[in-house]
Amino acid sequence: MIVLKIGGSLYTSSYLREWLVLLPKVKQSVVIVPGGGPFADQVRAAGEKWDIPLSCAHDMAVLGMQQFGHMMIGLNPQLTLESSCNGILNHSEQHKAMVWAPYDEVLADDDIDKNWQTTSDSLALWLAIKVSAKHLCIVKSAKTDGKSLQQLISQQVVDNNFETLLPNYSGQVHFYHASYAQRFIDDVNSDVLT
């Protein structure tokens, strides 16, 4: 199984539709973790205006991820929505492309730091740990080619809590630029992501 985090920055990108069209054609189960995109940006704006507590803002931002996920399914109804790790695991043998609706599971886990240092990157890693995914693939608009995971962490390409969770993950982490949808599909269908 592959956990694929599609960054919120793709909301304004023409590449988003390409990813969503190609993913149902992969030969493995893929669970898409949506970023927060403009939905999370609106939460940040509300937090600044109304001085919302961090834990409340975090919950609202996770709901923003879920909204982006619903939008993805609206763009490609071949994708299915799953809101629990058990649901993901139950459908993993069907080699489906799923979108994770994170709100209920994230809110139920008191061990998740609920602040702006825990973004959809860390939540994708959290999910990859929970479902024992062999690969966590993170799609970003930022350039990641040729950079080590430690460099990407130090350059804050991923959030601060990502490094804290990383020792608990036994799989591999890969980064893809937003324009690399076909490269991802090629990697899935070869030995790179098996």
Radius of gyration: 15 Å
Low-confidence stretches: none
Task: Give the helix level as a range of percent.
Answer: 40-55%
CATH class: Alpha Beta
Overall geometric form: globular
Tell me the distance between the termini: 8 Å
Strand order of the largest sheet: 3-4-2-1-5-6
Strand content: 5-15%
Task: Give a short account of the largest sheet.
Answer: 6 strands, parallel
Describe the protein's architecture and organization.
The chain has 194 residues and is α/β, with parallel strands linked by helices. It has a single domain, classed as Acetylglutamate kinase-like (Carbamate kinase, 3-Layer(aba) Sandwich), CATH 3.40.1160.10. It is built from nine helices and six strands; from the N terminus they run βαβααβαβααβααβα. It has a six-stranded parallel sheet with strand order 3-4-2-1-5-6, with helices on both faces. Helix 2 packs antiparallel against helix 3. The protein is globular, with a radius of gyration of 15 Å. The model has no long low-confidence stretch (mean pLDDT 94).
Topology:
Blueprint: E1 2-6, H1 15-22, E2 30-34, H2 37-50, H3 54-75, E3 80-82, H4 85-91, E4 97-100, H5 103-108, H6 120-130, E5 135-140, H7 149-154, H8 160-165, E6 172-177, H9 181-188
Parallel strand pairs: 1-2, 1-5, 2-4, 3-4, 5-6
